[in-house]
Amino acid sequence: MIPDRLFTNFSEVFYAISGISIPLSKKYLVENRLSKYIGPGKEFTSFEHILKKLSSPETKDRIKLLLINSLTTNYSYFFRDIAHFRFLTHQLHVYKNDDHFPVRIWSAACSSGEELYSIAITVEMALPGFTPEQVQILGTDISADMIQKARTAVYSSENMVKKISPNLLSRYFQPTDGGEHICVSPAIRKKVRIERLNLLDSFSFSRKFDIVFLRNILIYFNREEKETIINRIAEFTSNGGYLILGHTENTLGLDIPFTAKGYSIYKRT
């Protein structure tokens, strides 16, 4: 068990390196996620040992990534919140009719890739055979582990069969490992670009995005940080572009240049 005072110290250090707040009520999560690294024959002898290594110039960068990878919750599945993908389909047809190309889409917290590839598949269904000159899709995440999983694009067959129609599975996925896993098809994987990015770090893009998915990530941040993140994203969202949040998230009280349009979809003003 982690003493409350030590946990508070750890929480402050983790906030400094990641921008993510972990309240005392989440102490159980930290204990559960880090326990596999602590004990006889393991990398750390105690929780205090982790903090010591984190303050060492020789090891802090590696431990920082280990903690971010371990403590950021990554729960996702394909076509989560289907209303958002129906909106994406509708908006793609609007852009096509207006000859608004290229369309740029950003999955700003893409986790292990389910959202990102759901976007790519939706685009493919709306604009068959689309090229980078027509649609550009970027996925980013703070976790290096999640980025690697997204690039690998291999998922559990059991979970996939429960959540995706047989038609989509046969068109855009391939069985692997004797059928235990399913991989996103190369044709879809080559349609996306995946990079590591911390939304609280300084970042820049050469062109603005038309649609930004920022779903189920703001729960990690306080009000001021939410406002900072959304305003940074607004800098790289085209006028009239869209920001899509998770259904449990809202922007009440935030000073941001977006107007709510329903279903957690916001328009850049």
Describe what you observe in this structure.
- With 269 residues, this protein is α/β, with parallel strands linked by helices.
- 42% of the residues lie in helices and 19% in strands.
- It has helices at residues 4-18, 27-34, 47-54, 60-71, 82-97, 114-126, 144-152, 157-163, 166-172, 186-189, 223-235, and strands spanning 103-107, 135-141, 154-156, 173-176, 181-184, 192-196, 209-214, 237-245, 258-262, 265-268.
- The chain has a seven-stranded mixed sheet. It has a three-stranded antiparallel sheet with strand order 3-5-4.
- β4 and β5 form a beta hairpin.
- α5 (82-97) packs across α6.
- The chain starts with a helix and ends with a strand.
What features would you highlight for this structure?
269 residues; alpha/beta; 7-stranded mixed β-sheet; 3-stranded antiparallel β-sheet; 10 strands; 19% strand
Which term fits the overall shape?
globular
**Could you tell me the radius of gyration in angstroms?**
20 Å
**How many helix segments?**
11
Mean pLDDT: 90
| End-to-end C-alpha gap | 49 Å
Binned strand content:
15-25%
Q: How is the largest sheet built, in terms of strand order? A: 6-2-1-7-8-10-9
SS-based structural class?
alpha/beta
Major sheet attributes: 7 strands, mixed
Poorly predicted runs are none
As a percent range, the share of helical residues equals 40-55%
The secondary-structure element order is HHHHHEHEHEHHEEHEEHEEE
Number of strands: 10
